Amino acid sequence: MIGLVLWFNPKARVGMIWCEDQGPLAFLGPEAKLPSRNMLLSCGDQVTFSTDMREGVRFVRDVFRVESGVPGLDPAEIVSGYHRVTETERHLRIVA
C-alpha cells in the first residue's frame, strides 16, 4: 500500500499514515520494520508499506520504501494536495 506520513514522533518511533485506499489511518508503532534502523520519517513522506488489522486498528508492519516529502506542511494540506493531483490525472478527455 502507498501512504503519506501525517506525523511521526522520532523519540517514541510512532506515527500515523494516511492510506491510498482511503480506509482507516495506519498506526506506525515502534515494532514496525523500517528500511534502516536509524531512519526517521517526516510529515509528508510518501511510504510503501504493508499492514495488519488488529482489533479494528490498522497497524503498519513493514515499510519498504520512503520518498521524502515537503517538510513542515499541515497534514490536511498534504492529503488535499494528493487528491488534487490524482483527480486531475484520472480525468480523461476524449477528443473526436
What's the CATH H-level homologous superfamily? Nucleic acid-binding proteins
Question: CATH class, please?
Answer: Mainly Beta
Stretches where pLDDT is under 50 for at least 5 consecutive residues are none
**Which structural category fits the helices and strands?**
alpha+beta
What's the number of helices? 1
Strand-residue proportion: 35-45%
Q: How many distinct domains?
A: 1
The CATH topology is what?
A: OB fold (Dihydrolipoamide Acetyltransferase, E2P)
Order of helices and strands: EEEEEH
Question: Would you write up a description of this structure?
Answer:
The protein is an alpha+beta fold and 96 residues long. The protein has one domain (2-90): OB fold (Dihydrolipoamide Acetyltransferase, E2P). The chain has one helix and five strands. Strands 1-2-3-5-4 form a five-stranded mixed β-barrel. The radius of gyration is 15 Å and the shape is globular.
Concise structural overview:
With 96 residues, this protein is of the alpha+beta class. The protein has one helix at residues 75-90; strands at 2-9, 14-19, 26-28, 46-54, 57-67. It has a five-stranded mixed β-barrel.
